[in-house]
Amino acid sequence: MLTRAQWLRLHRLLGLTMAVFLLVQALTGALLVYRGPMARMLDPVGMTSHATGRPVSIGIAVTQADRALPGYHVTRIFAPDAPGATWFAHLRNAAGQARFASVDPAGGAVRRTGPLAAFPVEAALQIHYQLMAGRIGMAIVALNGLALLIMAGSGLAYWWPKRNRMKALAIHWHRAPRLVLRHAHRTLGVVAAAFMIVLAATGLLLVLPDLAGDARPLPPVAVAAAALDRGLALAQSQFPHSTLRDARIDAGRLIVNFNAPTRNARAVHRVIVSLAPSQIDQRIPADRNPALWMTILPIHAGNALGPIGQPLLLIVALALASLSLTGPLMWWHVRTQRRSPSRKPRA
């Protein structure tokens, strides 16, 4: 069993080592809490429908994105997630390079194309999940989650008061700034620790299966609009009352995910359709889907707590960002104090 001093040393070592990564995870996570609305707010021209024509099908949306980026083909496309939203397509070329495009569902005009830099919220998602560094990035994110688990536990072990908790966790604002900073860091960490343990554990459970699996990108292929529309219509016949979330184009197959809110806010029904000939290969209702992420993601994203979940998650993300900044600042202040020469008493 570690002593309190050893818990503190472990907490400080992990905090200083992972502070930058924790800050990045916290800030990108905060941005992703309201992913769709944030994308439309940050880029109203590129990510908002201007409603200038008839609704377009998935086939037309894919064709428009392909035409806007010669040499690239759509590998995945997300349906509009709210009124006024756009189709959002992921594209790749034969060399594996990625591009993205937004397509207006009313009329089919391409609103924006480009790399991740052109889509800040999508960039935040890729940074949050893999630091835009593939499997190496996912490994760092996994280590970051493990570090956060240990830090939250070690912080509780060191600072959790044995009695008179309200008094022990009070912030004495009249004290010297360095003491106020220490008290604020302690109290914020203790209050948010349980939430951060949940976020770290669920984050690990989300990234580890993908880290251990096959991360090769889907091969880009051109598929006729009519074939995609037939494939989606066939998939929709299996879940006629469900709305489309996204579809992947995988060689000669269309992998379709429909929203399944009766299970949870992130659950999906899945249908896999062969495009030539057009036939159903697999049908997986949400309540029979064994995918771990379908249970874990609603917890990690705050949806499991209902209306208060996302606002609470935003607060916790901002708390983690604050702790990531105040921890190194406290350490730097102590180091500075130790290095400064002691003042001689006046005669």
Model description:
The protein has an eight-stranded antiparallel sheet, with helices on one face. The protein contains ten helices and eight strands. The chain has helices at residues 4-32, 35-42, 58-68, 120-130, 134-159, 165-168, 177-212, 225-236, 293-300, 309-339; strands at residues 73-78, 87-92, 98-103, 110-114, 244-250, 253-259, 268-275, 278-284. The chain has 347 residues and is of the alpha+beta class. The chain is elongated. A hairpin with a 6-residue loop joins β3 and β4 (110-114). α1 (4-32) packs across α5 (134-159) and α1 (4-32) crosses α10 (309-339).
Please render the helix and strand layout as text.
Blueprint: H1 4-32, H2 35-42, H3 58-68, E1 73-78, E2 87-92, E3 98-103, E4 110-114, H4 120-130, H5 134-159, H6 165-168, H7 177-212, H8 225-236, E5 244-250, E6 253-259, E7 268-275, E8 278-284, H9 293-300, H10 309-339
Brief overview, please?
The chain is α+β, with helices and mostly antiparallel strands. The protein is 51% helix and 15% strand. It is elongated.
